[in-house]
Amino acid sequence: MLTHPTLDQLKALKLDGMADAFVELQSQAQAAELAHAEWLALLLDRELANRNTKRFQIRLRGAKLRHGQAAIEDVDYRTPRRLDKALFQQLAACKWIAEHRNLLVTGPCGVGKSWLSCALAQKACRDGYTVLYARVPRLFADLELAHGDGRFTRLFRTLVKADLLIFDDWGPDRLTANQRRDLMEIIEDRCGNRSTLITSQLPLDKWHDVIGEPTFADAILDRLVHNAHRLELDGPSMRKLKANEAEPEARSSAREAGRSTSSPDTKPARGEQK
């Protein structure tokens, strides 16, 4: 078999997965026992897996997640923060995104709202959905600039067409009139067509005050809340817990280092004065 011309042809056709699998099979003695159909099936499986991986990586880069390494497999259910394990695992299946439902995640600072949301978003990328992450204060600032420099239509289209749009750090600042209008347009176009995930330190009954104008508030929340799952977290800051766990280890390491340097049996290193 002409190995090199075959590889060149596979790469010319951008069938990199098949090319890699072809090289591996050629190097295995057991491959000679495979039928032509089995060879082809293995090559196609590798090509499909390779393309799926590349698409996932493109979706993940496009999502611009705050915690890009967050994954549902790494969620700590033992931490006391009232995380409903059954509901979270149900959400991880991404059926709510297929059904164009929303998710509202509330809880105090540091409890892990953003990280959990990014873990769900990463799973959505794996399952073939497009995701876009945005911190609310930064998004509104970008929208305001976009109105002035002609980018608004393009930015609006990007926000509307993502299968899952994440609004992180909603509130506590009251929205301006322009922000209310922009938010209303985004939510209106996404309602029933796409899924929106919002994280906030504020409980849901305070969101009406953040939006401000009652008519806009009623319209926006009606489209968000009545078709949404809710994760209501509570507990101490995860950062504080990790710092408390690390403190005894740091003190122990310092004591060990102190004993090591003060030991009378310690010989001076070469070049040091006795």
Describe the structure.
- Helices cover 57% and strands 10% of the residues.
- It folds into two domains: 3-48, no CATH class; 63-232, Rossmann fold (3-Layer(aba) Sandwich).
- A five-stranded parallel β-sheet has the order 2-3-4-1-5, with helices on both faces.
- It has 274 residues and is of the alpha/beta class.
- Mean pLDDT is 87; it is low at 266-274.
Question: TL;DR?
Answer:
With 274 residues, the chain is of the alpha/beta class. The protein contains twelve helices and five strands.
Strand and helix map with partners:
Blueprint (H helix, E strand, L loop, with lengths): L2 H10 L3 H11 L9 H28 L21 H8 L2 H4 L3 E5 L6 H14 L4 E5 H14 L2 H10 L2 E7 L6 H14 L4 E6 L6 H5 L2 H12 L2 E5 L5 H25 L12
Parallel strand pairs: 1-4, 1-5, 2-3, 3-4
Helix pairs in contact: 1-2, 2-3, 3-6, 7-8, 8-9, 9-11
